UniProtKB/TrEMBL annotation:
<dbReference type="Pfam" id="PF00528">
    <property type="entry name" value="BPD_transp_1"/>
</dbReference>
<dbReference type="GO" id="GO:0005886">
    <property type="term" value="C:plasma membrane"/>
</dbReference>
<dbReference type="GO" id="GO:0055085">
    <property type="term" value="P:transmembrane transport"/>
</dbReference>
<feature type="transmembrane region" description="Helical">
    <location>
        <begin position="182"/>
        <end position="207"/>
    </location>
</feature>
<comment type="similarity">
    <text>Belongs to the binding-protein-dependent transport system permease family.</text>
</comment>
<feature type="domain" description="ABC transmembrane type-1">
    <location>
        <begin position="71"/>
        <end position="262"/>
    </location>
</feature>
<feature type="transmembrane region" description="Helical">
    <location>
        <begin position="69"/>
        <end position="94"/>
    </location>
</feature>
<feature type="transmembrane region" description="Helical">
    <location>
        <begin position="106"/>
        <end position="127"/>
    </location>
</feature>
<keyword id="KW-0472">Membrane</keyword>
<feature type="transmembrane region" description="Helical">
    <location>
        <begin position="241"/>
        <end position="262"/>
    </location>
</feature>
<keyword id="KW-0813">Transport</keyword>
<protein>
    <submittedName>
        <fullName>Carbohydrate ABC transporter permease</fullName>
    </submittedName>
</protein>
<keyword id="KW-1133">Transmembrane helix</keyword>
<keyword id="KW-1003">Cell membrane</keyword>
<keyword id="KW-0812">Transmembrane</keyword>
<dbReference type="InterPro" id="IPR000515">
    <property type="entry name" value="MetI-like"/>
</dbReference>
<dbReference type="InterPro" id="IPR035906">
    <property type="entry name" value="MetI-like_sf"/>
</dbReference>
């Protein structure tokens, strides 16, 4: 019993040490956001004198626009694309998981192929297509594809749906439920953990997306937070890195809040989709 207790103590100490090592960069990031440029080169974790104005000055540092504008752009774009991704992916996954239709296996194989296809391969054709649609410098290149689902998210939800007993569908059919009724009343409520997992992944990917807005957005009034941080550095001859780190720290707060609020469902969704199939 004593040896078991000692082994648990050693395991907890090792885990705490690894946690401290992994948390150190975040702690340095927080401390550096309060530093002046000269203090950033010092080995201290926190500054001798906290520069609280890094946050207030950084928020209004860009000409004509405050970070409120870019945060609102990111929130509107991310919420819209995330909602459309969750809805469309669940519908397509329900079709693959429950319905029988011609060439189903072939379409599913093509779906898996799109997951394996690097995004760099489709970048130029997509840009040419969106340019011909006059969608450049609009949010449509992000919104329209999200309304058609994401291959990875569809596959994730298919694995979850396959683990739901088919007897529920048969019972619903006996009660006169249509296929959409089965999706809406039976499958969708049971998919809650998996849907929240998709929501978190989609929100994180769209919120921190830098390359996509860089390619399709040209004017400052449509910029998202990642582009604003890039512009923040470019527009100053002497970069105040404390302000840059302060704004980048604020930019991850929505992601952290979402993850911690839905952490229980996220872990449950990952576990169940990994075990069912």
């Amino acid at each position: 019993m004593k040896s078991l207790t000692a082994s648990k103590f050693v395991a907890h100490v090792i885990l705490l040490l690894f946690s401290a090592i992994m948390f150190y960069p975040v702690l340095w990031w927080i401390g550096a956001s309060f530093k002046s440029n000269p203090e950033l080169s010092l080995p201290t974790l926190f500054p001798h004198k906290f520069q609280w104005n890094n946050y207030s000055d950084g928020w209004v540092a860009l000409p004509k626009y405050t970070f409120t504008y870019f945060f609102l752009n990111s929130i509107k774009l991310t919420i819209t694309t995330t909602a459309l991704t969750v809805i469309s992916s669940s519908l397509v996954a329900f079709g693959f998981g429950r319905l029988n239709f011609p060439l189903k296996k072939m379409w599913f194989a093509l779906l898996l192929l799109t997951i394996m296809l690097p995004s760099q391969v489709t970048l130029i054709p997509q840009y040419a297509m969106f340019h011909s649609f006059n969608w450049i410098n609009t949010y449509l290149p992000f919104i329209v594809p999200s309304a058609m689902g994401g291959a990875f998210f569809i596959f994730l939800l298919i694995q979850f749906i396959r683990g739901i007993p088919g007897e529920l569908d048969e019972s619903a059919k006996i009660d006169g439920c249509t296929w959409f009724g089965i999706y809406w009343r039976i499958i969708l409520p049971l998919m809650k953990p998996a849907l929240i997992t998709v929501m978190i992944f989609s929100f994180l990917w769209h919120w921190e997306d830098y390359f996509g807005p860089l390619i399709y957005l040209n004017t400052v009034d449509k910029f998202t937070v990642p582009l604003a941080l890039r512009m923040f550095i470019d527009t100053q001859s002497a970069v105040s890195w404390g302000q840059v780190l302060a704004m980048s720290l604020l930019s991850v707060i929505p992601q952290m809040l979402l993850f911690f609020a839905a952490q229980r469902y996220f872990v449950e969704g990952i576990a169940t989709t990994g075990l069912k199939g």
